[in-house]
Each structure stands twice: as structure tokens, then as C-alpha cells.
Amino acid sequence: MLALYGTGVSDGIAIGKAFILQRELPEIPEYVIPHEYLEDEIIRFKRAIDASRQQLLEIREHIPANAPPEASSFLDAHLLMLDDKMISMAPIDTIRQQQCNAEWALKTQRDTLSAMFEQMDDHYLRNKKIDVNQVVNRILRNLLQQNYDEHEKMSPGEIVVADDLTPADTVMLKHNRIRAFVTSLGGPISHTAILARSLGIPAIVSAHSATQYVRHGEEIIIDGKRGMLIVAPDAQIVAEYLQRQKDILKLRQELNRLKTSRGITSDRKRIHLLANIELPADVRAAAQAGAEGIGLYRTEFLFMNRAEPPGEEEQFRSYVKVVKALPKKPVTIRTLDLGADKQVDGGRAGTAITINPALGLRAVRLCLHDTSLFRPQLRAILRASVYGQVKMMIPMLSSQDELFQVLELIEETKSELKRKRIKFNPKIPIGGMIEVPAAAISADLFAPYLDFFSIGTNDLIQYTLAIDRVDDAVNYLYDPLHPAVLRLISLTIQAGKKARIPVAMCGEMAGDPRYTRLLIGLGLMEFSMHPATLLEVKKIVLHSNAAKLNRSVQRLLNVRNTREVHALVEKLGYS
Prior knowledge:
Layout: E1 2-5, E2 7-10, E3 13-21, H1 38-61, H2 70-83, H3 85-88, H4 90-98, H5 102-118, H6 123-126, H7 128-143, H8 150-153, E4 159-162, H9 167-175, E5 180-183, H10 191-199, E6 203-205, H11 210-213, E7 219-223, E8 228-231, H12 235-256, E9 272-277, H13 283-288, E10 294-298, H14 312-325, E11 330-334, H15 364-369, H16 371-384, E12 389-394, H17 400-419, E13 430-434, H18 437-441, H19 443-446, E14 452-455, H20 457-465, H21 483-499, E15 503-505, H22 516-521, E16 526-529, H23 534-542, H24 546-556, H25 562-572
Parallel strand pairs: 3-4, 4-5, 5-6, 9-10, 9-16, 10-11, 11-12, 12-13, 13-14, 14-15, 15-16
Antiparallel strand pairs: 1-8, 2-6, 3-7, 7-8
């Protein structure tokens, strides 16, 4: 028996035979195309793109009618990439200029795009590199006449082990009734990981060298919660995991009954549970989980996979679609949170890559630097505000000067709309994301000028601990329970209480059940998370006593030893 560890991205237990999915591309050849055959080579390239598009459309038809919206959204994103000039046109220019074969031209462009994405700070955007590689590899396979026929060989009940999987692969695994999957590569926020959670497929990513240690047909166990892959388990281990499967099924049935329950602690404290979304189609998943609204609508995805940024009207239609879908619930729209290096997206073209984009021109800094990007979004959000309970949230605030500039731009935009007699909500709540240590420390200085705070723990932890959470070499230092992080969260919550403005949390920490009681004890009353974790968090809320937790957590804040903090937080889980 052998145990391998990776990152669990979709809860659940699966027991079955391993199916090793080999997807290695051969060495890409480079050769000269005679001038008279260049147009034929370009036609060959275009046919490969057409074949790739047809394959994705056929896979789209296999999506179950009751599948979550992510299933089609991610496939649509890959289809859009096929039309992106950086993929569909740039290689043609290379073919003509260098007289090289289509495969080499496409590989060269892929390497260029990958380097660009690798420099991006935002972890969601950096993961777009994975999607680019997946789309390009599909085109390359068609150019090399390698068929995608592995799915036809799979049998229902098998567990797929692969180096990596595309969202299209994941849909086909569900269609073929594959029990689970494990990949050597990938991350917890990749589209494949998100899709696995949405489709309810137990999954592990980043289980390094899994394809080397597992043999085809060998019995394996996937523990999606713990991120553990067990190879060739003995009878006792199998029996133990069969029982855990039954327990998980019972828990899911129990959680489903909580969808219509309100988040109220045992001592009657009201906790609001909302959802984070990235696309208008995600609203359905939020509603199905019983979310009380949208605590974070990321707008960056409107700006991606395109040469030019979306106009005011396109943004307005997208925002209104979400707002109308939740007419009596709050929708918090975050203004553009792009990084400093978006040459391949409709955010900010033609800018040199910075040495450290984490500390560069990004988020609100970028918007204030380029108001031609910011003003249309402000107008679109304000116009959408008349259709429901819209809130506007500003990311990455670090100084009062930035906030004052933003508020001035908002007032100018309101005056402009008023002159043109365009309706908007003049009292739209304006909030700020607290994700920079400077903002948390001086939250009391921001509070008088804002209507709410939302703590973005992903960046707050990264900046506080000076680590890159997506860098394998240092991400072990990424610790939400570091005393400095907890003190910054507490400072923000207390500043909000003193100013009598609500404080929410929309980072990954809010959706992690391990920290729910800790955050309630710190005084957090509004959580926003991925819809998939909402019911589990709600169950913990219903069985928590806020007053008791507050007393325990106040003592915990004085603890100086990180290990002791972890032990005390674990004990909170049993209180």
C-alpha cells in the first residue's frame, strides 16, 4: 500500500480501478515551409482550429441538463480563446514571417503567452495560463493528427489518473460516469478544479508524479477532502473508506435540508451567508445553495480573452443580468481588479511587465491611472443599481488619497448621469476591500468614508507574510492563522463596529469550515464564499454560540505561539 498527497479540490471518497490517461505531446518539429506552400500551411492551421472548435461543441452537447452553469461557462471560455487573435491570428503572422510550420508557430506563441501570464500577480488570472496551454495543446493535437479517443476506452466506475485535465475532459469524465480523478499538476483554483467541485466529482490536483506511481487497473482510493491518494489499499482500509462514503452521503442529505434555513447561531446572532461569483451564469449555483445574495461579483472576466476592453453597454448588460436574477437580494460588484501586465487581455495593453506585479500598478491603482478604463465601469454599475440592491466595492485600497480620488470620480459620474437624465441609485453603498496590511491597520481612517468593508484574505495573508501563495517553493508559509493575520482581521472588524458599518469577508478563509467558528468569535457577521461550501459553513453557524466563541477567541488573540493558535482553533471546532 502507498499513500500519495496532493491538494484536495472536491470533497468525497471514491474507490475504483485506475485509468491512466496519457496526454504527452511529442517533440514539436520545426521546419521551413517553401514560400509557394505558405498559404497551404495557413489553411492547415485554420482547419486545426476548426476541428478543435467542433470537438468542444460536441463535448458541450454531452453536458447534462441538470449540470451547474460552470460546465458550459468554462467550455465557452475555451471556445472564445479559439477566436482570440493572440491564438488564431498571431501564429499565421509567424508562419508568413518566419516561413515555419504551423506547429512551431503555435508553440512559439504559446510560450510567449505563458510567460506573460506567469508574471501576473492575481492568482485567478495567472491560472489563465493553464487554459491557454489546454486550448493550444488541443490545436496542436489536431495539427499532429493525434485523436482524442481516450474517453471511449474508459469504463464507468474507473478513477482517472493524469498529468493534467481540461474542463472539456472533466465534462466527459462525468458523462462517462468516471468516479473521480487525480492529476499531477494543477491548482485548487483552476477551472478544472472548480468544475470538479460543481459536478460533484471527488478530485485531487498537484499529486506530483501520480502517473508514475499508479499502474493501469490498480485499485486506488481518492480522499478528496484530505487530498490523499491510496494505491493498492488492503481490505481493512477499503472497509474503512466504504463506511466514510456512507457518512459523507448522510451528511450531504443533511446539508441539503439546510438550504432554506437562516444562518442564526444558537444564541440568536444573525450570520449572513453570501456567494462569490465570476460570471452571470454562476448565479444559479449561488441560488441553489441558498445564498442570501452575492458578496463578491468579480468583473475581471469580462475583460479577458479579448483585444479591447468591454464597453459600458456590455458591462451594463452583464451586471443587470445578475441583479435581475436576484431582485430582492444584495449584489456586491467589485470594480476591476486586474494586475499590471495584461497584454493578452482587454485590460491594459502594451505595458511592460513589471519585476514584481504584486506590488505594481494593479486594481484601483490601475483604474485611477487609466480612468478611460474606470469611468465606463462606474457608469455601468451605477446604471445597474436601479434594478436591485447593488453595492459597489473598491479593491486593494491602501491610502486615503486613493479612496478620495475614487469617491470623487464616482460623484463626477453621478453628476454626468444626472445631467443626461439617466436613472441610478444616488445612495448606492460604496465599500472597500481590506486586503493590504496598511488598509487593515488604518481601517478606522477609511471607515468614516465607506458604507462597508469586505476583507479579502487571499491577498491580505500574502502581503502580510510576504509570500506568493501560488509558488510551490514558499506556499507552505501561507497560514491564515498566523497571529499577525488574525490581528489584522480583528482590527478591521473592530473598526467597522466602531464606525457602525458592516464588515464582510470574501476571501477563501470565509468559505473554509475550519475557520467558521474562529471568525464568528472575532465578530464577523457576513461571509461570502464559493457556493459549494456554503451549506457546510451554515451547519457550523447553526451549531455555534457566538458569545462563548467571542470569549474564547479574545483569549486566543493574545497567544504568541503559532502552533498553539492552530491547536486552539481546532478545539473551537468542538465547542
